[in-house]
Amino acid sequence: MTKLAIIYHSAHGHTEHIARRVLEGAQQVDGVEVRLIKAEDIGTRPDDLVDFDGFILGSPTYLGGVSGQFKSFMDATGRLWRTQGLKGKLAAGFTVSSLPAGDKQSTLMSMFVFAMQHGMLWVGNPILPEQHSGVPYDEAANRLGSWSGLMAQAGHSAPADSFVPGDVKTARMFGRNFADTLRRVEAQARQDATAEA
């Protein structure tokens, strides 16, 4: 069974809400076991990460970057960097802020650099913005037009589940795409290993 971890930090519930929608999408792919893990929990036992084949990373955007708690998780993986324990695994990222832009790109880039430092392979967001095909803006997948990862917008001080339908739909599609990509890559790796044996 291919193993996927969705690792996130959420202070007010918005990022967790999107993480759970990403989880729903990923669970639609047969042969992939998906776990939702809080960054602050896995940060105390980073060696557990080697048991997973892929990671979807999620953080709110605070002042143009990941939250302090998420950065602490990233920093806790230092010894895995020294041993290249995460090399070759797949990774992707998502973030939430209260404004349409909110410098979310900077947050995704910090996740990307983190993944590259560990020798992981990054999976972007291939979902075409649906508003260009006539879908109403708030209902459109990838309405914010992000290719490097998933972006979602939550109103400032709004309830944790107050996302427009398009962002929820995008989260499910993003999770499903990543899980499907991970399953295919892992199946090919197993096939290659069998052929070499």
How would you describe this protein?
The chain is an alpha/beta fold and 197 residues long. The protein has one domain: Flavodoxin domain (Rossmann fold, 3-Layer(aba) Sandwich). 40% of the residues lie in helices and 18% in strands. It is built from 6 helices and 6 strands, in the order βαβαβααβαββα. Strands 1, 2, 3, 4, 5 and 6 form a 6-stranded parallel sheet that branches. Strand 1, helix 1 and strand 2 (32-38) form a beta-alpha-beta unit. Helix 1 (14-26) crosses helix 6. The mean pLDDT is 94.
Q: Could you give the topology of this structure?
A:
Elements: E1 2-8, H1 14-26, E2 32-38, H2 39-42, E3 54-60, H3 68-76, H4 78-83, E4 90-97, H5 104-117, E5 121-122, E6 150-153, H6 165-196
Parallel strand pairs: 1-2, 1-3, 3-4, 4-5, 4-6
Helix pairs in contact: 1-6
